[in-house]
């Protein structure tokens, strides 16, 4: 078919420090040369090539569903009518494998994964393959977004024993859950240069019958080696490395891989990588007067501008697609993920703080508009994703990008009105076609569409500045902006009548935490209460539907039920480290945006629970999963890469610093030091793999600012000082409102607050560092000067 069905090629900057590629990008494997048929393990078989893509569709219902019909996960339900005797991950499947002495076939994916759809249609709907899987294996399906611990453990094996990783991930396990063969996407049948899934199954079946002991020995040996290689511990180190050294090395590595023309840090595919942009902004702040500092700012701002102008951004409906298949940010993989929207909203908001350019704040507002409209549950939670695939017309089989592509004819028919005042005959449709680079032949290159199925189709991408488009037709810039906005709105209304992509209505605590941050930070910086209210409603949703009061634990998932209800799996899926870390970050951001101390109090309680469930008291840092929840898994890992999402340990390091700033509790500062020390070796070897943790290291070794505003929360002068702080990019700070009540939560945490007074009964700001506070400040302009020093 098209470029959209070709697995992305390897690109720089996302490899594991030990030489093992990491598969942290969802729905893609930027680290492997070809996702199809990457096979690793102790069964000998040839490497395969790429299978031909067929349009994917939902499984046609069979008479009898399998065990997945009782699950809540949209991904598992997509496989409920396969002719495969699927089991969910759990003791029933493990007991069956032990009793019947069969290997376990573990298949991991997620509901908006394009290649997962492919393998489901080609192989898991195949009756013969279904019989093989049901008779000779115990087949287990896992939604990687529900069980990131299972995904991480076996992805570590696949990456270590094959040429890369990605999804779907398919691994064969012994009955005691030790892996012995793994791969990613398999086409159903053999080709000239590939091995088909049916052949793989037959060979593994034969090996299990004839050489089972050898397989068991090899799996034990590989597991032992992985355990040693994945260990992250303080060892005999007492302190983390130098922040200045790590900062410099991380910046240099990014500088070497930077694309001067189009921004970003790879040839293709290109990913948004908000963690890298966040690092560059922090690096700029600490090196503002140096050439490297200016370079870091330019790299980040240019990348954000090129992304926003490219086809990776949905110019009609807003929001960002998963990644670009080309260097120019032009033709995307059309899947939309909640975690991308959350992090990019913050990145564009920070770009606005730093540059003052409204272009960036407009993009941030557009992202949040998309999330509020398309990814929001009526009770305040946020859905996980929208699929890349949808039917071009009702009744047709889904194709990737069908919802988002346009022909010239469609645009001209929707926008036929003539534009007055132009230097040549011009319709509003022709103006939009010119500005966004649409052509009769289509603007997707033949190399990205090898089967010619996208001829005449176009991805909207900004080709000219407003000024150039206006000059081309002799129009005012303001008039062009209005015409383009009106045209895009008409396209948006027309697009509503197309069949929509599948919505993954699963709600994850971690990603909802990121989204609370996105709304809270953007709302605070732009002074928009409406956006802060979305963050408040998101936090209320988390507390109402994803928090168990009795145990103090977060739940990982909940699901949209019928009629706007919220459903849970039974038993519940409990939270992982990233759920706690991302929700705590969201609550800290929400406190600073809303000044409602209840959110700060809940963040403290969740951090206590996180410490109890995940902290490694011997080696330092946090494990990704609870010991009990991961019982039986051969590895208990600590995530050591900031990828599509930041590592939960990186976020936890920031959270611990902020919580220490809010409370003065020394234990959290000590934990932060232990965590950073545990990851010292990883940071030293490949700092670019942990840019968010390098940021935390810098924050630790600098001085955190406690910015205290003494005043009435509802008074105009208090709000003016708060807005002054929000408008400035200051990543290494906590913002505290002291309302004068000595019994308040924060006054009890930080006794020194009671010594700070309002000056002449006006709202007054103090900037405190190293247990010393500035002189009182009542004017926002004076506070701005001090904070810019």
UniProtKB/TrEMBL annotation:
Residues 66-226 form the Spermatogenesis-associated protein 20-like TRX domain. It comes from the Eukaryota. May play a role in fertility regulation. Residues 52-67 have a biased composition (Polar residues). Keywords: Developmental protein, Differentiation, Secreted, Spermatogenesis. Residues 9-19 have a biased composition (Basic residues). Residues 1-67 are annotated as: Disordered. PANTHER family: SPERMATOGENESIS-ASSOCIATED PROTEIN 20. GO terms for biological process: carbohydrate metabolic process; cell differentiation; spermatogenesis. It is found in: Secreted. Residues 23-36 have a biased composition (Basic and acidic residues). SUPFAM superfamilies: Six-hairpin glycosidases (SSF48208), Thioredoxin-like (SSF52833). This is Spermatogenesis-associated protein 20. The keyword Nucleotide-binding does not apply. One of its GO terms (cellular component) is extracellular region. The keyword Magnesium does not apply. InterPro entries: 6-hairpin_glycosidase_sf, 6hp_glycosidase-like_sf, Ssp411, Ssp411-like_TRX, Thioredoxin-like_sf.
